[in-house]
Amino acid sequence: MGCASRLAALAVFSVLAAAPAGASAATGYPGVLENDVSPAISGDVALGGTAVASPGEWSGQGPIAYAYQWQACSPACASIPGATTSTYAPAAADLGARLVVIVTASNANTSYAVASTQSAAIAPAPEQVQASLSGQLIPHDRTLAVAIGLQTRRGYRLAFDPPVTGVVTVDWYLGAHAQLSADRHGLVLVASGSTRIGRLGPSAVQIRTTARGRKLVKRSRSLRLTALATLVPTQSPAVAALGPFQLT
User: By three-state DSSP, how is residue 96 classified?
Assistant: First the structure.
């Protein structure tokens, strides 16, 4: 091989050696692909929703084709069989896991795989969250024990086992209400409590009476109340549940 030929071959080898890890060249430069912006996951990662993969941004000789492989991480990541399109609908088996999508970009000469960052943890469907709230927004003991707590500034500790992380607020209003308007104008708030839930597991919301609510509890032998629980999950829209109960 002549000197000029050896120098040309060395130049091509140097360019390929600088290609990103994971790239493989069939015929050499300029076919090497480079990932400029990493793949990303958007959409709804709750059960019943659809996660959407963006391939990111790539540079290199076109046309460029993209292949997808979704993984579930809890915490180790494993490929999800059959999840090879740009969208993925989380299944019940994925609950609590985090999603990653691996995008493989290919042209006529090279292929190069890059993983996205992990998504938020897969949450229950909004209907499941609402059903869970409905079963927890009313105290199991609706007698004197609750009333005694509500008559003090200490309030009443409402046991709560959240289906997702986030902020939960529980309000108790005077009277029976089929629905509560957004501003709840004209309604009497008897007691309220809120807490931030950073991890799943048994927790509690401390319900404390308002000044007017404390007077009502002390003066009344029985109160008809409506409980409103609102949960704002960390990564999904707020969910609310409503339920009437009698405090005796």
Answer: coil
